[in-house]
Queue: 4 jobs
Job 1
Amino acid sequence: MVASGKPGKTGSIVEVRRGRKVLDIAVQDRERMRELAREFEQPLTAVQMASMDELTLLTNLHGFMVLAQLWLDACEQLEKPVSLLYFDLEYFRQINETYGRVEGDKALKTFADVLRVAFRESDVVGRVGGDEFAVLLTGSTAVEEAGIRARLQEMLNERIATAHRGYDICFSIEQMEFDPVVHKTVEGLMTAVDFARHQGAVRF
């Protein structure tokens, strides 16, 4: 009885140790990402100030490409995955035509603020077109689109209700995980996402 019980006990100890090891690795990964954020603070700030979209205070397309490539290179060195989320505001033209340009600008700023709050400091958020936004998710594989959509829509609805606006801010999401062999760079990833958007299909 004693002999048969020992392997089970040993197995449990091994499982606990493995669990702790996985947890330790996850903690180390998060700490490393924080360290990188601190290391990148000055160059990130410089790029953001030089390439800031004046309306939304996010980085513009140029700034996004520079910052995203910087983080992509870091993630490749750490062997961490990277994913890109591409957002396109729907019915934005109707908002401009019905409520005016000023209200359209407010809608853009509201969406930008929600993106800024919703994602981490190690993620790169930018306004890459008139009503188009992109987020580079560092250390992340493809995420659940429905969950992101629901979270962002809830935040948007709260802000719209508070401001008593007569319209909704709707958006589409395109998602793609970075493949170093296929995409090679952030520019390659953005090109692939743009192609997928126009084809009406997204690669995961």
Job 2
Amino acid sequence: MPIIAPSLLASNFLRLEDECKMLNESDADWFHLDVMDGRFVPNISFGLPVIEQIRKTTKKFCDVHLMIEEPERYAEAFKKAGADQLTVHIEACRHLHRNVHQIKSLGMKAGVALNPHTPVEFLSDTLQDIDTVLIMSVDPGFGGQEFIPHTTQKIRNLRRMIHDRGLDVLIEVDGGVTEENATAIIHSGADVLVAGSFIFHSKDPKATISKLKNLD
């Protein structure tokens, strides 16, 4: 079964406590929290104060995805806010090895995200230090985009790299995930499915989460 990580970026922020309660009662495994700074991506989302409040509502794994420049400046603050995993973008890190080890030294899982144009081979020298690789299947910054078909080949390439080295690294996929393409994504080698609009804009979000969770 895949790990399901609903993205709260697509939730109703006027009803955020209710949305968190719904996720707690659902088959969701993780809370996926997207942080955008308006510099690395052309959008601004939420930050530390909101994550602190979300953390109070749940015991589930909080997966914080930093779409920001200079993520090393804020790693300790996000740990204090309640992040269980902190994911940084390879494109935003001038010293990725240092960034990854900073995150792990703070007691969090370390994730590295790749934009659609970035080959998985760029992780060749750091893959053994990473807990989760987040493959972006849309251009980061906005929800509701369509899945980029070539992503499934990237997933297969990364799965082969992980297998050949005997590593224990999760593959997370974020962007345009729906019930129609989720099975192909899983079969390509993904472990974690991030979905935002598809879940929160559905008529019955809990049922939608269950459908994704029970795909094989």
Job 3
Amino acid sequence: MARSTLDKLPKEIREELGRLREDGWTIDELLSKLQELRAAGRHDLDVSRSAVGRYVQGIDKVGEQLRQSRAMAEALVRQLGDEPDTKVARLNIELGHSLIMNLMTGMAGGGAEGEDGQQSVQLDPEQVMFLTSSIQKLASARKTDAELILRLQTEADKRAIAAMEATAKRKGLSADTIADIKKDFLGIRKAS
């Protein structure tokens, strides 16, 4: 990603700028705050108004994307209602994949435009490590979700088979008839 002058500021100052912007501070107020912090020796960068303006645009764009993501997630959770946690987990995994893809295609902003008109993203080694870790965690979450679904299905199958066997025995069906029902309808072969 293209780095601005403000990206070189200490993390705590960038976080403070973000909080102040959330509180409604204007570009001029933020610039004045940065000049005040520079005079106090908290940073040594000469920051222009246009750099603060670009930074504010980036903050505002990310804030809008977060608001849209939250609204979408809330709507989806309302739509899912009392659905099993696995559907919510799958939704979170898909949202994570979508965010990573947006970052990689430059839709998250800040990238330079390539020859094909698409935004390109240049990541530093720390960002690459974070992105790789995120992808691994999403893959692990997907695997955990699949294992949970399989375990729940297996438990449900066992309960259904036990209930079917108990009902069949109560109705006086023979062990061979029960085995045939399990084979024909459930695909379960009699243990040898």
Job 4
Amino acid sequence: MSEPNPPKMPYWHVYTDAEGVSRQELFSIERFTFEGINPETAPQWNDKMDPAPSVVTFTVLPVGWVGEWHENPRPQWIAILSGRWFVETMDGHRVEMGPGELMMGEDQNTKARDGKKGHLSGTVGDEPCTMIVTGLQVEPTVNQPGRFK
């Protein structure tokens, strides 16, 4: 089997800029290597993140749920499993995400402006939004958009 071209996996990065304003941009994870997870398995594409203690939470946001303006509690990967939700950052950018989409929530250390701090999020549509949230016990970065690309 010949090695295919490396994939790109899109993710939204919600981050804090140098002025303390939350922003979000679409980037791609791109540092994949083609290898088996052990010598007995066929090769696959893997992008191994730096090791970090983490907390995994399965979340179900009910229909009509709105999480008022808040920061992510820690840097965390959020993968949408079913349903839809939105995230609006302090810069006014609103993004809706659905099944299979990925986000890194890293808007810690924002500075309150016009009653906004962090981000606003909520469900979209008439079904709950289910997700898996992997919170990393690491120091959040500031003004490093797309740092996982």
